[in-house]
Amino acid sequence: MSKIDIRSLLFEELQNELISRGLPKFRAQQVYRWVQQRGVTSFEEMTDLSKELREKLAEDFELRNTEIAVKRVSKLDGTVKYLFRLTDGETIESVIMKYKHGYSICISTQVGCKMGCTFCATGKSGFARDLLPSEMLSEIQTAQRDIGERISNVVLMGMGEPLDNYRNVLRFLELVSSENGLNIGMRHISLSTCGLVDKIYDLADRKLQLTLSVSLHAPNDMIRSRTMPVNKKWNVEELLKSCRYYSTVTGRRISFEYAMISGVNDSDACAFELASRLHGIIAHVNLIPVNDVTGTGYRKSGEERLRKFTAILERKGITATVRRTLGSDIEASCGQLRRRNEQGGTL
Ligand code: SAH
Ligand code: SF4
Known about the structure:
This protein has 2 domains: 4-62, DNA polymerase, domain 1 (Orthogonal Bundle), CATH 1.10.150.530; 67-342, TIM Barrel, CATH 3.20.20.70. The longest helix is centred in the middle third of the chain and has 15 residues, at 133-147. The chain is of the alpha/beta class. Helix 1 (11-20) packs across helix 2 (26-37), helix 5 packs across helix 6 (166-176) and helix 10 (268-278) packs parallel to helix 11 (303-315). The chain is elongated and about 70 Å long. The protein has 12 helices and 14 strands. The strands form 3 sheets. Strands 3-4-5-6-9-10-11-12-13-14 form a 10-stranded mixed β-sheet. Strands 1-2 form a two-stranded parallel sheet. The protein has a two-stranded antiparallel sheet with strand order 7-8. The structure holds S-adenosyl-L-homocysteine and iron/sulfur cluster. Iron/sulfur cluster is lined by residues 113, 115-117, 120, 122-123, 160-161, 194, 215. The site of S-adenosyl-L-homocysteine (SAH) has 16 residues, from strand 10 and strand 12.
């Protein structure tokens, strides 16, 4: 019989599992703290439990951990990038960024991605599997242990499409924000999606206080369907309708991600069209000069183009910022390091 993934259990579930094994109720509190808050990687580390009990737990439960396979630190800004190895040998990436208000981590939600966006390194390497809630938590715990500092903000913006692993992501959100766990509040969490509209409606109705980022990257279907296959399922109009619903129901501002690709989506006409389509949504646009990904043939827009594009949006009443690129010397953007590792490049 396969063992139970203990780090993915909600507190009540853990309590029931322990009670059904004849253990007193208060043990659940202790074990939950070890697993969720302290982020132990083995049962032996639970030093206030008897050896006998630790062995008993290890018989029925397993700890899904992440191990550091590669670590790179940016000389430019201190950004840290990890390639983590999972229990089954698969690899994923996480990035830690230091801001004035503390440390923020960008975590992966899947090994690879099914969505196939043409500009994205993760999209290019295909899909292997979903991550478990325990593995997403372990990304934070391992990184936190490695840097010796508390991580206060989480963004679900690494490899994978979080809303394509919806059940596990919801469970992760519940665990990571629990008081006896890492206790990272929803207001400190952002989730980025390429636009799975049915899930955006569902998320809105849950009224979680997290920040939603939507990867828009184009003002119309012609351009968006060319770079993001998901647009053929839900087009720009349907996507923006769900965003309007989300911001109305939750009262939260939505961040729209827009990777500026030279000659593809960065013209003045694109800026005007984008502004008019975002009208009436509490929105903020993040412009990101597209990162070089080998084999895409895309080039980032120049400084002047970025300035002009931003100015048009601002004039039309849409707030926009050009996102500063962190860790550009360590291939910090999603999927690049794993892809290079798989292709056998030097690290
Ligand atoms: N799947 C989710 C979250 C992970 S991707 C999503 O697509 O939103 C995280 C962000 O990186 C997304 O906004 C994505 O569009 C962006 N991205 C991917 N490849 C990029 C590249 N080459 N340059 C700039 N941004 C990129
Ligand atoms: Fe997947 Fe996001 Fe990359 Fe698109 S941009 S392929 S949705 S990870």
